[in-house]
Design brief:
With about 80 residues, the protein is mainly α. The protein has one domain (about 5-80). About 85% of the residues lie in helices and about 0% in strands. It is built from three helices and no strands. It has helices at about 5-15, 20-35, 45-80. The longest helix is centred in the C-terminal third of the chain and has 40 residues, at about 45-80. The two termini are about 30 Å apart.
Length: about 80
């Protein structure tokens, strides 16, 4: 298993990756466009758009969480190694 610091670095690279960011942004923009342009009768389409937005948020949040966890683990390792 990859340690928390390595996972954090990988997640950080993914969050900074321009292609992945472009894909996330495109999914979000398409979902927002569907939400704005659907009629009252198109509730199912709006629900799917909402779920798409939430999915992108969850993926970004999970990657950000991995970065945060890696930073926490790195700090713990420094604190543990500096104890007498």
């Amino acid at each position: 298993m990859i340690d928390a610091e390595a996972r954090a670095e990988h997640a950080k690279r993914l969050l900074a990756d321009t292609l992945l960011t472009e894909v996330f942004d495109a999914v979000e923009a398409a979902a927002i466009n569907v939400w704005r342009t659907t009629s009252v009768a198109q509730a199912a389409e709006r629900e799917i758009a909402w779920q798409s937005l939430k999915a992108v948020e969850r993926v970004r949040g999970a990657l950000s969480g991995m970065v945060d966890n890696g930073l926490i683990e790195a700090r713990r390792a420094v604190q543990t190694s500096s104890r007498p």
